[in-house]
């Protein structure tokens, strides 16, 4: 699997279009995400470990907003629970096409079904694990509670939701500091100030981020009994949320 370098925003653009998961982004996505999100590889690897702990025999696992399938493949490689089946969903045809080629390149006991679909309309089957790895942030804010409620309803007792998000903070001084540290991280990974600025402008209208407190309140409001941030770096956080009977699968 070759990794193309992300240079989408490397030259000045007359007009910066809204960010989209199109063929151009899909072609450079592994490089883009690893150079843009601190700890991304750790998050993906740990999701595979969590799946091995919380997957229930003969149940479905959902990877929502699967992009090129990194989470699905991490679960496939690390989960040894019998009879599980992964359904990987993304609403981008370009992402799904490349995801399918990546999935086809890996052998393993766990089947992965890759689908083009909108999770807002999707009818979920009962499942033991759902992953939203930097996905909810691209859904309209007023729709997020209903999405999380629908996912909670689909989870079996003891089921696990993994939610990873870029976040903002109520304290403006802290928020500005964490944004600066993130931009410094991107510069260290080879992005120019022009690339950082143009990418931020492209995301402005399509990625509206919440505070950690809002995410946690939403998870609890929809019924999750255990909500815990397990990863934090700058303005990026990942949570586990468990539906009832957590002690049976801890």
UniProtKB/TrEMBL annotation:
Its EC number is 2.1.3.-. Homodimer. GO terms for molecular function: carboxyl- or carbamoyltransferase activity; S-adenosyl-L-methionine binding. Catalyzes the conversion of S-adenosyl-L-methionine (SAM) to carboxy-S-adenosyl-L-methionine (Cx-SAM). Keywords: S-adenosyl-L-methionine, Transferase. It comes from the Bacteria. Pfam families: Methyltransf_25. The lineage of its organism: Bacteria, Pseudomonadati, Pseudomonadota, Gammaproteobacteria, Alteromonadales. HAMAP family: Cx_SAM_synthase (MF_01589). This is Carboxy-S-adenosyl-L-methionine synthase. It catalyses: prephenate + S-adenosyl-L-methionine = carboxy-S-adenosyl-L-methionine + 3-phenylpyruvate + H2O. Belongs to the class I-like SAM-binding methyltransferase superfamily. Cx-SAM synthase family. S-adenosyl-L-methionine binds at residues 40, 65-67, 90-91, 118-119, 133, 200. Residues 61-159 form the Methyltransferase domain. One of its GO terms (biological process) is tRNA wobble uridine modification.
